[in-house]
Each structure stands twice: as structure tokens, then as C-alpha cells.
Design a protein that fits this description.
The protein is an alpha+beta fold. Helix content is 21%, strand content 26%.
Length: 461
């Protein structure tokens, strides 16, 4: 069951999807969320000031950050309300530790959100939207995921609410992170203050010849193109020495990219090693490396129309090699539902169709992706993986040089621009286009495909 609140003619959906000139200010959301039966907290509440009707307060900002506890009562002297409210007043530290925001919604008297008064119209809209009967004391707990976790009309102890919250998977994870089990040693600060070092200094890493690639791309011929429909995937092939582009065509859309050697599916893109060498997000000059034992560049990024984005105030960047891909297994774990158009499934179907492999055999070749056009990062406080609206617009593209003969697969993520969710049939999604370009071969004179790793594979034996 889902509610969408609208007060004074302001739609929360419109407020959330309206475009801003600089998309770097879009708010991030966590990637994997427990999307149980949801009441999406897109509440447009009005502050109790003279300008309240003109300045709505959007409480969607609390989603994934706070739990909301609504106390409905006829008035402040109602005995059940009074007992619970006094418990809250004496256990503020426990309330804050669980990220609870308290709403006191009264038929008679001043309603409040935390310590701020609410306009009577807002209070009445909450009675209506939560379908709370007049004159009845009701306690409603909304989780960080937007799901209603508790709806009671009788005496409710605050301690019981704490027990319910502490049993939630997200809360258990919070407690593990927030409450150390071991006492810090006397030199804890000294240990933390040790300066970091880069794991893989790139001074001796062979550099791609970007000047040669730049010359070769000046006179390219389009030889093929593939349109990837929304919530689906398609295969494409690129001969070594050719370029390919992934292009936004109709609207902001994220894509999940897999690469294999055309001659050997066991040689495939290794996102973890690519991340270790080049960082969490890729752009012009970075290379996509294959896994062991091959360990060679498969493709080099030669142009990126979104390279201006850099990293925003949230720590978000574009084209990440952090996330693995949305998949039906995690979706089933978190939601209990079957969903078959996650990028993992899309890529599996496409590879099976192209190669003739049974689905279960094709699936093992699908691997962690380059998240093309996706804007992601880690939260500053808990270092959780987040996503936010992609800055990509029609006409934007990212271009690659194929270092070896490539078999590629691109999935159009069911999350669209990933501004709200993924693994969904409700998000606006658009196609993506893959273009294959043949360069002027004279400009590539002297270039040869990279050889696999020269390591002996003796492993000390």
C-alpha cells in the first residue's frame, strides 16, 4: 500500500522529479534498500509560520536516514498518549540512537514534528492519509525504507517499539557499526593517524597511447549500431582496433556493461582490479582490465562527454566500478519478490541468446559491470554505497577503443537514471545505443593488441 501526500496543491512527485540546472546537487539514496510493502515518505508538510503555504517542507529527506513514529490522539491529555509521550521525554538518547523522529498528531491542540509545530491542515491530512479513525489513539511506526512496521490502537510501550526496531536488519547493521564490541586501546588515535599509501602506484603501469587514439578517432566510419531497449540487454561485437560508443538517445538512462574476449568467454572484464588500478570511477584514459591469468587491457576510454562532472559534494561520480549490477538474488533476499529484468538477468538472457548456451551456463559468465552513466559514491558518515540521479542527457556518450576483439553486452538498468530505485517496472526507462566505429587504419600504424600477462603461472612451484 502506498501513500503520496499532497498539501496546498504541491505534488511530492513533481517536487522530486523536477530538473535542476546543476544535477550535482541531487540527493543520493542507498543502493540496496529493504523495499517491503511501502509507504513512500514523500510528505509535503507545511511549517507553522506565516509563510507556511508558500514554503512546504519535504520530508522525503528522512527516507533512509530516519524512522518516523506517529502518535495520533484526540488530545494531549489522553492517558495512552500521555504515558508514551512521557517515556519518550525521558529516553531521548535512546530515541536519537535509533534515528527516530516523533510526530504528535492531535485532533485538539497543537500537533508537532519533533519540537516544531505543525499546521492544523497538515495534521488533518495525516489522519486522513493514514486512515486513522477520529477519537482513537494510534501508534504508527514507519521504517527507514518507508514501510509501516507497526500500527496499533492500544497501549504501546516505548521499550516494545525499541525491541521491534532493534530486530530490523537495517538496525542490526547500524548497531554493529555504531557499537564496538572491543575496547579501544590506549594508542587508538595514533593507530588511526597513520598516513595511507596508494596500493598500486601507477608509475610503472604501461600507458595507453592516447595521442594515437585521438588521431585515429578523427576520421571514423560508423559500421554498426545496436539499440538496447529499456529493461533489456543486447550483445555487440567490436574488432580490435575499432571504437565503440554507448550513447544516450531519448532520456537519462544508466547502463550495465560486460566485456569478454570474442575468442574466450573466460577472459572477461575484472572490475575489482580495474578499480584498484584506476579508482572507483572511470573516465578518459582509464582502461578496462581482464581477469587472471590474462590480465591485459580490454578497452581504453577515449572520450567521455560527462568528464566535466568530477566528484560532487556527496562524493558521487559517474561511470563506477563499485557496484556489481542489480540482480534477482539480492532483490529476492530484500523484497521476497521475483523480478526478472534486473541487469544480471538481462545480461544472462542476452548472452544465452547470442551464444546458444543454456541460461544456467551463460549466467556464470556474467560478471561485475562498468556502471555506465550511473552516479554513485559512498556516504560520508557510514560509507554506504549510494546512487543519485544520473547527469546524462540525450547526446552524451562514452567512447572506448577495443584493445582486443570484444564481445560486449549492455543492459539498460530497470532503475532508469537511478534517481529513486532500481529493479523496478515503475521507473521511467529509455533505450541506449551502441555505435561501432572503424578508424583510419593509417593512424593506427604500429599499434598491436596487448598480449596476455607474461607471468609464468608457476606460483613458486
Amino acid at each position: 500500500m502506498a501513500f503520496r501526500f499532497q498539501v496546498s496543491g504541491v505534488s511530492s512527485k513533481k517536487a522530486r522529479t523536477g530538473l535542476k540546472p546543476d544535477t550535482r546537487h541531487r540527493k543520493p539514496i542507498l543502493m540496496h534498500k529493504t523495499t517491503l510493502p511501502a509507504i513512500m515518505i514523500s510528505l509535503m508538510l507545511i511549517a507553522s509560520s506565516l509563510n507556511a503555504a508558500e514554503t512546504p517542507m519535504d520530508l522525503s529527506q528522512f527516507q533512509w536516514k530516519n524512522r518516523l513514529l506517529f502518535l495520533f490522539a484526540p488530545n494531549r491529555s489522553h492517558p495512552l498518549f500521555d504515558v508514551l509521550q512521557k517515556s519518550i521525554a525521558t529516553q531521548q538518547a535512546e530515541v536519537a540512537d535509533r534515528d527516530l523522529v516523533i510526530f504528535e498528531i492531535l485532533e485538539s491542540g497543537t500537533s508537532r514534528m519533533a519540537t516544531s509545530d505543525l499546521d492544523p491542515q497538515v495534521a488533518q491530512s495525516l489522519w486522513d492519509k493514514f486512515d486513522v479513525r477520529p477519537g482513537r489513539f494510534t501508534v504508527i511506526l514507519v521504517g527507514k525504507d518507508g514501510g509501516i512496521k507497526l500500527n496499533r490502537q492500544d497501549q504501546t510501550r516505548l521499550e516494545d517499539i525499541f525491541v521491534l526496531i532493534d530486530a530490523m536488519p537495517m538496525r542490526r547493521e547500524e548497531m554493529m557499526k555504531r557499537t564496538p564490541k572491543s575496547q579501544a586501546p590506549a594508542d587508538a588515535d595514533a593507530r588511526r593517524s597513520v598516513k595511507p599509501v596508494i596500493c598500486y602506484p601507477l608509475d610503472t603501469l604501461p600507458k595507453p597511447d592516447m595521442a594515437t587514439y585521438a588521431a585515429a578517432r578523427k576520421a571514423m566510419e560508423l559500421t554498426d549500431e545496436v539499440i538496447v531497449p529499456p529493461r533489456d540487454a543486447r550483445i555487440f561485437r567490436v574488432p580490435s582496433g575499432n571504437f565503440f560508443r554507448i550513447v544516450s538517445v531519448d532520456g537519462p538512462q544508466v547502463g550495465d556493461l560486460n566485456l569478454w574476449s570474442q575468442d574466450d568467454l573466460s577472459e572477461r572484464f575484472y572490475s575489482g582490479k580495474t578499480r584498484a588500478l584506476h579508482g572507483t570511477h572511470l573516465s578518459t584514459g582509464d582502461q578496462m582490465w581482464s581477469g587472471f591469468p590474462h590480465m591485459r587491457p580490454m578497452a581504453t576510454i577515449t572520450y567521455d562527454t560527462l568528464d566535466w562532472y568530477g566528484f560532487d559534494a556527496d562524493g558521487g561520480g559517474v561511470h563506477d566500478v563499485i557496484g556489481t549490477r542489480c540482480d534477482p538474488y539480492t532483490n529476492r533476499l530484500l523484497s521476497g519478490q521475483e523480478y526478472h529484468h534486473c541487469c544480471h538477468s538481462n545480461l544472462t538472457r542476452a548472452l544465452a541468446s547470442e551464444t546458444g548456451l543454456p541460461l544456467h551456463e551463460a549466467e556464470v559468465h556474467v560478471h561485475d559491470v562498468l556502471n555506465v552513466f550511473m552516479c554513485t559514491g559512498f556516504t560520508h558518515d557510514k560509507h554506504q554505497y549510494f546512487m543519485k540521479a544520473s547527469p546524462v542527457r540525450p547526446g552524451d556518450y562514452i567512447e572506448f577503443f577495443a584493445e582486443i576483439d570484444l564481445l560486449g553486452a549492455l543492459s539498460t538498468c530497470p532503475g532508469g537514471d537511478c534517481s529513486t530505485e532500481h529493479s523496478s517496472d515503475t521507473t521511467a526507462c529509455f533505450p541506449l545505443k551502441v555505435e561501432i566505429h572503424r578508424p583510419d587504419l593509417k593512424a593506427l600504424e604500429g599499434w598491436v593488441p596487448p598480449e596476455p600477462s607474461a607471468y609464468s603461472r608457476s606460483h613458486g612451484v
